[in-house]
Amino acid sequence: MHHNKWRVRKGYLTIHIAVDIKKKRILSLEVTSEDVHDDGKMLKKLVSR
After folding, report:
1. Coil/strand/helix, residue 2
2. Distant-in-sequence, close-in-space partners of 34: CB < 8 Å, separation ≥ 6
């Protein structure tokens, strides 16, 4: 029987980006963990910067 000494929990990060399409520039960027599920809240945060 094989026991794994290291337990690896795989997850993901989410990148939220506000972009000025006409000028082709990134206006704001926020990286969150997989626990953040409120995109509307992130949008307000990005726009207010």
Report:
1. coil
2. 11, 12, 13, 14
Q: Exposed (0-12), middle (13-18) or buried (19+): which is 7, by Cβ within 10 Å?
A: exposed
> What are the pLDDT digits (tens) for 9-36?
778 888 888 899 999 999 999 898 888 7
pTM value is 0.61
Q: What is the DSSP letter of 18?
A: E
Tokens of 37: 């599920």
**CB neighbour class for 22 (10 Å; exposed up to 12, middle 13-18, buried from 19):** exposed
Contact yes or no for 34/12 (Cβ under 8 A): yes
